[in-house]
Design a protein that fits this description.
CATH superfamily of the largest domain in chain B: P-loop containing nucleotide triphosphate hydrolases
Distance between the termini of chain A: 38 Å
Strand order of the largest sheet of chain B: 5-6-7-3-8-9
CATH class of the largest domain in chain B: Alpha Beta
Order of helices and strands of chain B: EEEHEHEHHHEHEHEEHEHEEHEH
Radius of gyration of chain A: 23 Å
Shape of chain B: elongated
Order of helices and strands of chain A: HHHHHHHHHHHH
Structural class of chain B: alpha/beta
Oligomer: heterodimer
Largest interface: A-B, 44 and 52 residues
Radius of gyration of chain B: 24 Å
Helix content of chain B: 25-40%
Chain lengths: 277, 314
């Protein structure tokens, strides 16, 4: 028996003043996101697809230019062509958005996190800031490099654009913002669904399956619904010629996707707060 | 200090924890004992604010865990082995935890050294054995040098050397005046580590007691007596109010009278004694006795099929 004969020495642990703060949580979330391979993989795929596909299509267009007729040449959109890879890269950013939260659940890390920082909303806010900034930087980098490389490959005789061409800067910069917003939509889905495969399926379904389903609606209704869909908004953001009939303007479209992200993240945060971790 | 009052947790129809009240004091190791599935882990998660109680309340340092200013520096917990991203290194895992509470990075290295993981600190934790995962979890619990510590089955997966290390660690932490709350389904392990025990079964409190009291309360404590005049002694003891059973080997098992009383009675009668031996139950038996009715999942010890009608319980 370990009977206590002397009283235990008093603990003289002076806690620092104040409490754990948002900056501490930002640093922690940054450490988390940069110390797993899935981050490097998804960012790598984002950059490679985003830049590579645009470059490939641009180079092919250049080599086929002489066989294109006048109509094709006039409707050719050099900005959109160089940025076409963004529409593939968006899936990789979405997967990272899902993983930053769903992987915490699947691995149990979420319980270690909340045991160190039980203010769940504050942790979640730090996570949103870190992922949001990282995805924004990666998406803008990808978008700008894709544009410049694409325009370089679309050298004469093919028409090419500069950032001052009508709509070009909006397509490039807005394309990056759109991918970041879509990543936050995915993060919201990941928070609500919590399972990686389920959330990725939902994300891919919204971009690929939902458009097919709405095609089955009566044409007027279908058109009204279609313009709210992120895939359509993304394409319109990248397009600088022949704007879709009945679509929102690119910036309004971006605002709509941003609202989706905010609503999903808000629902996710309130579920995170209420549910058992 | 950890205080639970009427703590209750239901998952749908399942009552994981029911009206549980107990206190965990500083300066001693308090064991949290119960069969598998009795609600120990659920209770620990509620202490840490991870699961919300259906009813009742639990506080640490007089407040809810989520109200602590520096949670990691105030309460440390090992809740499950390998609650870590398999792709993240031990160092990265501890670093991200340390950063939440503004702890210096030196502290991470200190803890890696303490638990003996320095050499594998940069390896992916997915490659860790259960024992290494357990050590990493202990490092995480100790990271903020907290005053209150919770360990859920800390010796699981450890080798004998590791088990002894954890045992000494827990005792040392309690000796420093900390509050140490350790769950286990193994009474024998707690007997070596804990000073006090909180025993639960099917989510309900069975007993909160010291290890010593647990032993003396047990009805498995009896005195074995052998005598050539067993029948005469038995009658006399029963007259005094003791409960006496005549065993197959001719000895008497006496409950309700200690060896002193029995010896004096024998001298008075007089009856010759050949043996007078107090038998104390092992802690394992005392624990089994307490939790007998509250074990969720019984393993059958009978052969398959209804060979006898008395059932499986041996």
């Amino acid at each position: 028996m370990s009977t206590q004969t002397t009283p235990p020495p008093a603990m003289h642990k002076a806690l620092p003043p104040g409490h754990y703060g948002f900056l501490d949580l930002l640093r922690s979330e940054w450490t988390k996101i940069r110390t797993v391979r899935s981050t490097m993989w998804t960012i790598g795929v984002t950059v490679v697809l985003g830049i590579g596909i645009g470059a490939l299509v641009s180079a092919l267009t250049r080599s086929h230019w002489s066989s294109m007729n006048l109509g094709q040449r006039l409707s050719f959109d050099p900005s959109a062509t160089s940025l076409i890879g963004i529409l593939f890269a968006q899936f990789a950013v979405g997967i990272l958005g899902v993983l930053v939260i769903s992987a915490e659940y699947s691995t149990g890390t979420i319980r270690a996190t909340f045991s160190a920082a039980p203010n769940r909303s504050r942790v979640f806010a730090a996570k949103i800031v870190v992922f949001g900034l990282l995805s924004l930087i990666v998406a803008e980098f990808t978008s700008f490099v894709a544009f410049f490389l694409g325009q370089f490959l679309l050298s004469s005789p093919a028409t090419h654009a500069t950032l001052s061409s009508p709509g070009a800067f909006r397509a490039v910069f807005g394309g990056g913002l759109f991918v970041c917003a879509l990543g936050l939509v995915a993060m919201g889905l990941g928070t609500i669904i919590r399972h990686t495969a389920g959330a990725i399926s939902a994300f891919v379904g919204i971009l690929l399956v939902l458009p097919i389903l709405t095609a089955a609606l009566p044409s007027q209704l279908s058109q009204d619904v279609r313009k709210f869909m992120p895939d359509r908004i993304g394409v319109d953001m990248l397009t600088t010629k022949s704007q879709d009939f009945g679509a929102f303007s690119p910036w309004v479209g971006l605002l709509i996707v941003a609202i989706y992200a905010v609503v999903l993240l808000f629902i996710g945060a309130s579920m995170l707060e209420r549910r058992d971790a | 200090m950890i205080e639970a009052k009427g703590l209750t947790k239901h998952y749908g129809d399942k009552r994981a924890v029911e009206q549980l009240s107990f206190t965990v004091r500083p300066g001693v190791v308090t064991g949290f004992l119960g069969p598998n599935g009795s609600g120990k882990s659920t209770t620990m998660r509620m202490i840490m604010g991870l699961d919300m109680p259906t009813a009742g309340d639990v506080t640490v340092k007089g407040t809810h865990f989520k109200n602590l200013q520096w949670p990691l520096r105030e309460v440390g917990a090992l809740l499950e082995a390998k609650a870590i991203h398999p792709g993240r290194s031990a160092r990265a895992h501890l670093t991200m935890l340390a950063q939440t509470n503004h702890l210096p990075s030196d502290r991470v290295d200190e803890l890696l050294e303490l638990v003996g993981l320095t050499s594998v600190a940069n390896k992916r934790a997915g490659k860790f054995s259960l024992g290494m995962g357990q050590r990493l979890g202990i490092a995480a619990a100790l990271l903020g040098d907290p005053e209150i510590l919770l360990f859920d089955e800390p010796v699981n997966g450890l080798d004998p050397d590791g088990i002894r290390w954890v045992r000494n660690l827990l005792k040392g932490l309690a000796r420093e005046g900390r509050t140490v709350f350790v769950s286990s389904h193994l009474m024998s392990e707690m007997a070596l580590t804990a000073d006090e025990v909180v025993i639960i079964g099917r989510g309900k409190l069975i007993s909160q007691t010291s290890i010593g009291d647990l032993l003396s309360q047990s009805t498995e404590n009896f005195v074995r007596v052998r005598s050539p005049e067993a029948a005469k002694l038995k009658a006399a003891l029963e007259e005094q109010g003791a409960v006496v059973a005549l065993e197959d080997d001719g000895s008497l098992s006496v409950r309700g009278a200690n060896e002193v009383a029995i010896g004096e009675l024998a001298a008075k009668l007089p009856v010759v004694l050949h043996e007078l031996a107090p038998q104390s139950a092992s802690l394992e038996e005392a624990f089994m006795e307490l939790t007998e009715d509250s074990i969720e999942y019984h393993g059958s010890t009978s052969s398959t099929g209804p060979i006898n009608s008395t059932g499986a319980k041996s």
